Amino acid sequence: MTVRIQQDGVIATVTIDRPQVRNAVDRATAQALADAFRAFEANPDAHVAVLTGAGGTFCAGADLQAIATGSPNRLQPEGDAPMGPSRMALSKPVIAAIEGHAVAGGLELACWADLRLAASDAVLGVFCRRVGVPLIDGGTVRLPRIVGLGRALDLILTGREVGAREALGMGLVDRVVAPGQALAAATLLAEQIASFPPRAMLADRASVYAGLDVGLEEAMAAEFARGLSAVQQGVAGARRFVQG
After folding, report:
1. Which region holds residue 100: left if phi is over 0, alpha if psi is between -120 and 50, else beta?
2. CB 227 within 8 A of CB 160
3. Percentage with pLDDT > 70 across the chain
């Protein structure tokens, strides 16, 4: 199996397990990743997912050796993406735990996650620029939204290496931790997020994503509509606060 799924309490950990090729994703692995996150989405007992890679590497992108030998990843415009889940719009949070390289399609997978934690010696970048492979798993869409247009174009046009500290400074990653600690830190953060009353948190998360593509007035109205459904939970929380 090239993808491992483990659930501990309400946290689901999805691990790309192809360390011999730095967790590069071939067609079968992409399918397994997509299936893993479909299962996470459908599981009411799994509240937050952590995506990571085995053997000290997050993901080196698509498996170029498989592509070169005539076994390309899925390239249809609808359905699962070439890297698997990167077209999915999940209703629950995903955290990327990055050790080693998160490059090319691996960077696109990391950008698909809601949050990114990286080891201090991690390396990120659009390395596919160097071999003439385009970003087709959301990289050109998500990078500008995460780091801004100028920085996104810098990464996309140059394909340069970005260390964890620089990535933190530009907002490409959200936390930097000691080497070897990305998964543990991501799991701890997932547990913290999962401990919050879920309806309000998930409504706010959904409003953030929905508001990216509409005008201010429509986004505000949609935020209110989603939030209204969670107000009763908020009232109960306020009563608990007042009562100490």
Report:
1. left
2. no
3. 92
Q: pLDDT (tens digit, 9 = 90+) per residue, 81-120?
A: 999 999 999 999 999 999 999 999 999 999 999 999 999 9
The encoded tokens of residue 152 equal: 């996104």
State which amino acid sits at residue 184. A
Q: Is the pLDDT of residue 234 over 70?
A: no
Please count the residues of the chain: 244
Residue 220 has pLDDT above 90, yes or no: no
Q: Which amino acid is at 155?
A: L
Instruction: Report the 3 state secondary structure along the chain.
Output: CCEEEEEECCEEEEEECCHHHCCCECHHHHHHHHHHHHHHHHCCCCCEEEEEECCCCCECCECHHHHHCCCCCCCCCCCCECCECCCCCCCCCEEEEECCEEECHHHHHHHHCCEEEEECCCEEECHHHHHCCCCCCCHHHHHHHHHCHHHHHHHHHHCCCEEHHHHHHHCCCCEEECCCCHHHHHHHHHHHHHCCCHHHHHHHHHHHHHHHHCCHHHHHHHHHHHHHCCHHHHHHHHHHHHCC
Average pLDDT for the chain = 92
pTM, rounded to two decimals: 0.91
The two tokens of residue 95 are 């955290």
55-82 average pLDDT score: 92
